[in-house]
Design a protein that fits this description.
The structure holds 2 protein chains of 2 kinds. Chain A is mostly helical. Chain A contains 22 helices and no strands. The longest helix of chain A has 53 residues. In chain B, 52% of the residues lie in helices and 16% in strands. In chain B, helix 11 packs antiparallel against helix 12, helix 11 crosses helix 16 and helix 13 packs across helix 16. The chains are: A mainly alpha, B alpha/beta. At the A-B interface, helix 1, helix 2, helix 7, helix 9 and helix 11 of A face helix 1, helix 2, helix 7 and helix 14 of B.
């Protein structure tokens, strides 16, 4: 997978969506235009010959078309239901035939001609039976059936289907994942590069990807919309250590802000302790969004000694998000010697920071509790209330971490 | 001479009304067709694998579900429990008690073991004073805000101030939400977080459905025709109109019962407006106006799949009150933002959806009534032949039937949540029958609402008498 310049996934998707919307509006306009053309046609060629009053003739034509559409809708509803039932009946009849051909093929007989014919007449049944058989076999037989899928043009079809609706995508990706890597791998890789099949294709590829390919997938995922990242986060978690040893430090040091933030969010989502010293540098980044994300990761990056000074410094940051992240990390790490800095935050004019600081003091052990007790008597009534709340929480064993 | 002049005036009025009927029905029809294509293409539900991955994902954004409530002592326990049981990995429920005079707060305190919290309101919206914030000592993320009465919009704003998440879901306390509602609604935001500022969801009628554990288990038509007529109306509005408008990024209303908003966007826009009864429409129009004025790309999306279920009025008296209030809300929102009407600065909103709402939704009932009046006068003074009047009436009713059956079939072909068989036929009957009397009655009440708006009648919470959900065994 080649690296391409990063453009906002949101804006790319937005452009695509705008075009699709325009197309849909055009289609709807065509349908409405078609209906009115029909009304006009009936008016000119049929009704106006019998009724000379033009508005009356138009109204009657309109009425005819209305009732025509209502009738067509009702008939379509009944026909569709019946067609679905007929399809189910047809499948019951043809599936054993397809199974027989596939078994014969695996036994070495030449059944390609019959299967080609079935590909034309019963494509969906053939696909389903082929996939079922593929799941049941392995080794040479699996490769042989995968080759058959390529020969029958099924891989190309599934790749196209995977870019369509949800149901087709789910089925197509399920089918592609049953093929041998040489038959289905390329198609899956292409799908993993762009939406809409991206998340599902990545989820199929991640468990079997080699380290190099995994890095490329990870980079593609960082550039994808948050929906894709949310879907694959847990699948990537199994490879967290190898990613932290390779591609993540590379991304963090490259400094592309959108990618850095996405990578930091991903690591935070995994909630696993990883050795990522590159994060410490980001705690002093010029972008407060990156600073706050890096600070939030402090308890997870296994370089505690180096992160502590950054956390203490960040408590005096000018950005509220950064201060809150620093306080949260101090609480989660139960940072020694942090009580003084946290106490200073408790007197912040910002209510959020002030309350958070009081809650953090509650999680810092006896040192923090002593500070809180002193705060209850302070003249600042809001700090006194939060200090009392924090101590009450400590007493009822309600950990403040849930707040963080 | 006078007779000829009267004929001419009558002809001009009658022609204008026929043209108006043609325009309104064409627009409705266009929106329905648009919705059909859009539902097939853009509104497909998550696959089961995608659903599982998202439900377990640690990267789902936090959501605060804000539930304004007033005098709901009878139902607050169940509705809050049902809100706390939604399928979403990262959310909190913020119930705002808007100065209830009954036992709402006591019941919530006892049921969810609330304790007085010193949690601070971080938002900047001005509201009536908050008396106390409570949190649950149970392992659930429940915050209850007790405040002085200030109206529904004020209660939502107080919830917004207290909420801690970047996304806010506003939900009516007497509604039921599909268990997967939150994660389906958040999907458009995850696809395009920079642009999506709000997401609307579908509201459907719960009358007749079986409910267990705060969830709709079996979807049925109601034994009451009045409820079924309203079901058809809801389908037409939500699956037809709103899907069509959202495709053009011109959605003008997100139901107050079920809408997701970006908190920063709402706070920037000034929150919900307590001086109107149509606060849900007004806030969406304001978001459009603000973002179009800033010339920043944005999207107000709509999801047809997740549903919020609400009980519709059983009696004509309550229905009348509700419709008058809705009409007043529309008129107030339109009047407040009248500068957007046919203003190209506001793009498709100013040139299409705002005029649609102003001309068809706000003034439509008055014009329709005028049409009926003129036809009756024309018949009395023999300016119009009875067979012609009848024909135009049949055409108008026929279009109504066409739109109603289309909405029903739209549901059947796309979302497909009504069971087949007897219930489908009953709904089909309602789709046809509602055009004979019910629709005309609604028009009359909406005119009354418009008159009330012109008189400047003030808003209220719009509470309605409820019979409760049809709870099945095991709940």
């Amino acid at each position: 997978m080649t690296r391409r310049p990063v453009s906002s996934p949101g804006s790319r998707a937005a452009r695509e969506t705008d075009w699709e919307c325009l197309l849909t509006v055009g289609k709807a306009a065509l349908v409405v235009g078609g209906v009115f053309y029909t009304v006009w046609w009936i008016h000119i060629h049929e009704v106006s010959r019998r009724i000379t009053d033009a508005p009356l003739s138009l109204a009657i034509s309109f009425l005819c078309v209305q009732f025509g559409i209502i009738a067509v809708q009702l008939i379509a509803s009944v026909v569709i239901k019946n067609l679905r039932a007929a399809k189910v009946r047809g499948s019951r009849k043809w599936r054993p035939v397809i199974d027989e051909h596939l078994s014969a093929l695996l036994a070495g007989e030449d059944r390609i001609r019959q299967l080609r014919r079935l590909r034309r007449t019963r494509p969906e049944d053939l696909e389903e039976r082929l996939v079922e058989t593929l799941r049941a076999v392995s080794g040479e037989q699996g490769r042989s059936l995968s080759h058959l899928a390529v020969e029958l043009g099924l891989v190309r079809r599934w790749e196209k289907l995977a870019a369509r609706g949800v149901r087709q995508r789910e089925q197509a990706l399920e089918f592609l994942s049953t093929l041998s890597p040489e038959a289905g791998g390329q198609a899956l890789r292409r799908l993993a590069a762009t939406p809409p099949g991206q998340a599902a294709a990545c989820r199929v590829l991640i468990p079997v990807a080699e380290p190099g390919e995994l890095s490329d997938l990870f980079l593609a995922i960082l550039r994808a919309p948050p929906l894709v990242r949310a879907m694959v986060a847990r699948d990537l978690c199994a490879h967290a250590e190898s990613l932290a040893a390779g591609v993540i430090p590379e991304v963090l040091s490259r400094g592309e802000e959108a990618e850095v933030m996405a990578a930091l969010d991903m690591v935070h989502g995994w909630n696993r302790v990883l050795r990522l010293p590159a994060v410490v540098k980001l705690m002093a980044h010029s972008n407060p969004e990156i600073r706050s994300r890096a600070l939030r990761l402090a308890p997870l990056i296994a370089v505690r000694r180096e992160t502590a000074p950054s956390i203490l410094d960040a408590m005096g940051d000018s950005d509220t998000r950064v201060q809150l992240a620093a306080l949260a990390s101090a609480a989660r790490m139960r940072l020694d010697g942090a009580a003084k800095a946290v106490e200073a935050c408790a007197h912040s004019p910002d209510d959020q920071i002030s309350r958070m600081a009081c809650l953090v003091l509650g999680s810092l052990g006896p040192e923090g509790h002593t500070v809180l007790e002193s705060k209850i008597l302070t003249a600042d009534r809001r700090v006194a209330a939060w200090a009392a709340e924090s101590l009450a929480r400590v007493r009822i064993g309600r950990e403040p971490n849930r707040e963080f | 001479m006078i007779e000829s002049l009267a004929h001419r005036v009558f002809f001009v009025f009658e022609s204008a009304i026929i043209l108006y009927c043609f325009a309104i029905n064409t627009t409705y029809f266009f929106l329905t067709v648009l919705a059909y294509f859009s539902l097939r293409k853009h509104h497909q539900p998550c696959s089961s694998a995608e659903r599982d991955a998202l439900l377990k994902s640690p990267l789902m954004p936090a959501i605060s579900v804000v539930v304004p409530t007033l005098n709901e002592a009878a139902s607050c326990r169940d509705s809050v429990a049902s809100m706390l049981a939604l399928n979403y990995p990262n959310y909190e429920v913020v119930v705002v008690n808007d100065g209830s005079g009954d036992d709402t707060l006591r019941i919530l305190t006892e049921e969810f073991h609330l304790y007085k919290s010193a949690r601070a309101a971080s938002g900047t919206l001005s509201t009536r004073p908050i008396r106390q914030i409570y949190e649950s000592a149970d392992p659930v993320r429940l915050v209850v805000v007790d405040k002085e009465n200030g109206g529904k919009a004020d209660a939502i704003n107080a919830g917004l101030n207290v909420a801690s998440s970047p996304l806010i879901m506003v939900v009516d306390s007497d509604s039921l939400i599909d268990r997967d509602g939150l994660f389906t609604m958040v999907r458009p935001y995850l696809e395009d977080p920079d642009r999506v500022i709000a997401v609307g969801g579908t509201v459907r009628v719960v009358n007749g459905c079986d409910v267990a554990h705060g969830q709709v288990r079996t979807i049925r038509s109601s034994s009451s025709h009045l409820a079924n007529f309203q079901s058809i109306e809801y389908l037409r509005a939500f699956l037809g109109g709103r899907v069509g408008f959202s495709l053009m990024n011109a959605l003008m209303i997100i139901s107050g019962a079920f809408g997701l908003f970006r908190r920063d966007a709402l706070i920037e826009a000034g929150g919900f407006d307590e001086s109107t009864v149509g606060e849900d429409m007004e806030v969406v129009v304001r978001l459009h106006r603000l973002w179009r004025t800033k010339k920043q790309p944005y999207r107000i999306a709509y999801m047809a799949a997740p549903a919020c279920w609400t009980e519709v009025p059983h009696s004509l008296k309550i229905l009348q009150r509700q419709r008058k209030r809705w009409q007043r809300g529309t008129a107030e929102s339109m009047w407040r933002h009248r500068a957007m009407l046919f203003n190209p600065r506001f793009g498709v909103v100013g040139m299409f959806s705002f005029p649609y709402f102003a001309i068809f939704e706000m003034l439509g009932p008055a014009i329709e009534c005028l049409g009926y009046l003129l036809t009756i006068l024309g018949l009395i003074f023999q300016m119009i032949a009875p067979e012609v009047a009848l024909l135009f009436f049949v055409v108008a009713v026929g279009f109504g039937v066409l739109l109603s059956t289309s909405a029903l079939l739209l549901e059947e072909f796309t979302v497909h949540r009504y069971p087949s068989g007897w219930h489908s036929y009953r709904m089909l009957f309602s789709a046809i029958a509602e055009n004979f009397g019910f629709r005309q009655l609604m028009t009359l009440w909406r005119v009354q609402g418009l008159i009330e708006a012109l008189k400047g009648k003030k808003g209220d919470w719009g509470a309605m008498e409820r019979r409760g959900f049809k709870v099945v065994a095991g709940s």
